[in-house]
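Tokens as discussed.
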């Protein structure tokens, strides 16, 4: 009951839920995501001094191969205008759902006077918070850990991704959640891209993983089994060039946050997986 909330305390609701991956009916899954954010905003509106942080995605900023509106790189002002619901592509349906979910959330939050902020991370990588030897680790595996596990075992080629470390994503969520309702970010419905600003090559990522493999003497993982996908040159922005403009805003609005390097992220993931495989 909204009447039970304390008028002296700021409350924060995080909307994180979304399925990333194929489902039996990915079009229905996309519609379910929109239903979920709609219900969340409606619920939050019943409480006093309650703010909402929506975890959106770079998928809502640009579609596959979409040209940035400024012709150079993507900013928080860009929106995905390409992705559609498609019977043969769960990826396109996912991108469509993230875009529409964010638009619906912003519109409804405005109508119901719900203070909100959108956080738009790129592909999230990073080590697990669980000890690899613990029984909890197997149930905590993320999609990114599974993917990098395939890379490090040589089951699939290492890919270049625009990404951010999960630890930096967590810092951003916590920091923003602590910002008081008096901050202008809530009333202006700010969007923030959470990401490094450029991809590094798949070859450079493969080298970092090979170093980790070699650190075990090659007894657990054969460094030579790790190989890179050298065919992909990037989407609308070539690999190595600035793909998003977000570093200054992250420092300004998130207490000086600087995203750790992609090399550090994959080195830590490789070490985690190496320990798990021993």
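Sequence:
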């Amino acid at each position: 009951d909204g009447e039970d909330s304390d008028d002296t305390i700021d409350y924060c609701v995080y909307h994180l839920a979304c399925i990333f991956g194929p489902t039996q009916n990915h079009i229905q899954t996309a519609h379910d995501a929109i239903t979920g954010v709609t219900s969340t905003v409606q619920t939050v509106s019943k409480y006093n001094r309650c703010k909402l942080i929506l975890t959106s995605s770079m998928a809502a900023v640009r579609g596959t191969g979409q040209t940035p509106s400024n012709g150079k790189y993507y900013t928080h002002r860009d929106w995905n205008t390409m992705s559609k619901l498609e019977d043969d592509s769960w990826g396109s349906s996912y991108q469509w759902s993230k875009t529409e979910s964010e638009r619906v959330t912003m519109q409804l939050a405005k109508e119901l006077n719900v203070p909100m902020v959108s956080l738009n991370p790129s592909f999230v990588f990073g080590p697990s918070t669980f000890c690899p030897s613990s029984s909890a680790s197997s149930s905590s595996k993320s999609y990114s850990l599974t993917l990098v596990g395939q890379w490090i075992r040589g089951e699939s080629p290492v890919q270049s991704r625009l990404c951010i470390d999960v630890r930096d994503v967590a810092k951003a969520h916590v920091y923003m959640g602590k910002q008081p309702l008096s901050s202008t970010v809530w009333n202006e419905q700010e969007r923030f891209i959470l990401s490094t600003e450029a991809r590094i090559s798949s070859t450079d990522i493969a080298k970092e993983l090979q170093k980790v493999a070699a650190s075990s003497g090659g007894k657990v993982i054969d460094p030579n089994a790790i190989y890179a996908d050298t065919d992909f040159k990037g989407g609308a922005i070539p690999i190595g060039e600035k793909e998003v403009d977000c570093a200054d805003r992250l420092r300004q609005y998130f207490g000086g946050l600087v995203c750790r390097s992609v090399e550090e992220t994959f080195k830590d993931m490789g070490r985690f997986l190496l320990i798990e495989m021993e």
